[in-house]
Structure to design on (110 residues):
């Protein structure tokens, strides 16, 4: 399954690189920290401003079909492909004008 290529995310979308950590606090007032994984992961925050209702329906249909499953996402700025999951449980729909909406999608590499 592939993430939709249209609509194109708006400027203001972002990518974040993170490494999950495990922290263990001790009675001696110190904290041990280690990596949970050996590989860094990417998080994507995609913003869609002033898209048509049809474009929103495309995103909504994908959201409903892909929730709980992994899929291929091609980062629009670099063209690099990632295997991702939806990291949000709801899809917001903000009415921007009478015929457009804005929304955002959160993805996380697996």
């Amino acid at each position: 399954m592939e993430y939709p290529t249209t609509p194109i995310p708006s400027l203001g979308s972002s990518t974040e690189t993170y490494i999950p950590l495990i922290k263990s606090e001790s009675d001696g007032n110190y904290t041990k920290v280690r990596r949970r994984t050996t590989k860094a992961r990417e998080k994507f925050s995609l913003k869609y401003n002033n898209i048509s209702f049809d474009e929103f329906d495309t995103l909504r249909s994908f959201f409903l079909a892909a929730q709980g499953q992994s899929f291929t996402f091609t980062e629009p700025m670099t063209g690099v492909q990632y295997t991702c999951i939806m990291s949000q449980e709801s899809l917001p729909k903000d009415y921007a004008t009478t015929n457009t909406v804005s929304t955002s999608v959160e993805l996380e590499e697996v």
